[in-house]
Design a protein that fits this description.
The complex is a heterodimer of chains A (about 110) and B (about 120).
Chain A lengths: L3 E2 L4 E5 L4 E7 L6 E7 L6 E7 L4 E4 L2 E6 L4 E6 L8 E8 L9 E2 L3 E6 L1
Parallel strand pairs in A: 2-11
Antiparallel strand pairs in A: 1-3, 3-8, 4-5, 4-9, 6-7, 7-8, 9-10, 9-11
Chain B lengths: L4 E3 L2 E4 L5 E6 L6 E7 L5 E8 L2 E4 L8 E4 L6 E5 L8 E8 L3 E2 L5 E2 L4 E2 L3 E5 L1
Parallel strand pairs in B: 2-13
Antiparallel strand pairs in B: 1-3, 3-8, 4-5, 4-9, 5-6, 7-8, 9-12, 9-13, 10-11
Classes of the chains: A mainly beta (about 110), B mainly beta (about 120).
Chain lengths: ~110, ~120
C-alpha cells in the first residue's frame, strides 16, 4: 500500500523552462511534506518542505504547492538548470508522532536538457 | 560539522555471510533511521532508533536483519546469512531530538542522509 505516490517515473525539461514534479498521498493524517533531491551515488539531500497550514512555500527557484483537499502537492523549479538533473523524492509525515518518521514516494527522475 | 558518515561505501558479500553496515550520525543528533533502496525503487523505511533504543522497526524484515544504536559508537545495521535479494543501497539518516509544540503537535525535523552503503551479494 503506497501512501505517497509519484506517478511520473521520469521527466525531461528544456533548460530555462519550468519543471513540475507531482506527488499524491493517501493518508489524511499527513500534515508535513518534504522534497528531497538525490544525485547518483549520493544520499538524498533536503530541498524544501511545507506544513499543512500553508498552501505554498517558496525558496529561490523552488516552490512547493499543497492542495490538502486533493491530497496533492507539486514542486515547481523555475528556471530549470542542468544541475537540477537528479531524482526527486516526495516525503510525508504526521505531527501526531513525536518522531520524524517520513514515508517516501518512489521518486521522479528529472533530466534538464541544455 | 561533519555530516552523516556511513561505511563502508561498498560491501561485497557471498551468500550466507554476514553484512555489517555502520552509521555515525551528525553531531548532536540522537535519532537514526535506516532505509533501503532496491534498484529502480524508492526509499523504504526500515528502522528508527534512539540511543540504546529501537523505537520503530516496522519496516525491518523479521528474520536475519537487526539494528542497534549503542550509547557509544555508531549505529549498526546487521544482515545475517545474506541472500542475493539483499543487494541494495542502504541509507542512514539522522535528526536532532524532536520538540513538542504544545497542542499543535511536534515540530518536525529534517533528516540528514549519509551517502549510503551499496551491498552486493554474490
Amino acid at each position: 500500500d503506497q501512501q505517497v505516490k509519484q506517478n511520473s517515473p521520469s521527466l525531461s525539461v528544456q533548460e530555462g523552462r519550468i519543471s513540475i514534479l507531482n506527488c499524491d498521498y493517501t493518508n489524511s493524517m499527513f500534515d508535513y511534506f518534504l522534497w528531497y533531491k538525490k544525485y547518483p551515488a549520493e544520499g538524498p539531500t533536503f530541498l524544501i518542505s511545507i506544513s499543512s497550514i500553508k498552501d505554498k512555500n517558496e525558496d529561490g527557484r523552488f516552490t512547493v504547492f499543497l492542495n490538502k483537499s486533493a491530497k496533492h502537492l507539486s514542486l515547481h523549479i523555475v528556471p530549470s538548470q542542468p544541475g537540477d538533473s537528479a531524482v526527486y523524492f516526495c516525503a510525508a509525515s504526521a505531527s501526531e508522532t513525536s518522531y520524524d518518521k517520513v514515508i517516501f514516494g518512489p521518486g521522479t527522475s528529472l533530466s534538464v536538457i541544455p | 560539522n561533519a555530516g552523516v558518515m556511513q561505511n563502508p561505501r561498498h560491501l561485497v558479500r557471498r551468500r550466507g555471510q554476514e553484512a555489517r553496515l555502520r552509521c555515525s550520525p551528525m553531531k548532536g543528533h540522537s535519532h537514526v533511521y535506516w532505509y533501503r533502496q532496491l534498484p529502480e525503487e524508492g526509499l523504504k523505511f526500515m528502522v528508527y532508533l534512539q540511543k540504546e533504543n529501537i523505537i520503530d522497526e516496522s519496516g525491518m524484515p523479521k528474520e536475519r536483519f537487526s539494528a542497534e544504536f549503542p550509547k557509544e559508537g555508531p549505529s549498526i545495521l546487521r544482515i545475517q546469512q545474506v541472500v542475493r535479494g539483499d543487494s541494495a543501497a542502504y541509507f542512514c539518516a539522522s535528526s536532532p531530538p524532536s520538540v513538542e509544540q504544545g497542542s499543535s503537535g511536534w515540530i518536525k525535523n529534517i533528516q540528514y542522509f549519509g551517502a549510503g552503503t551499496r551491498l552486493s551479494v554474490l
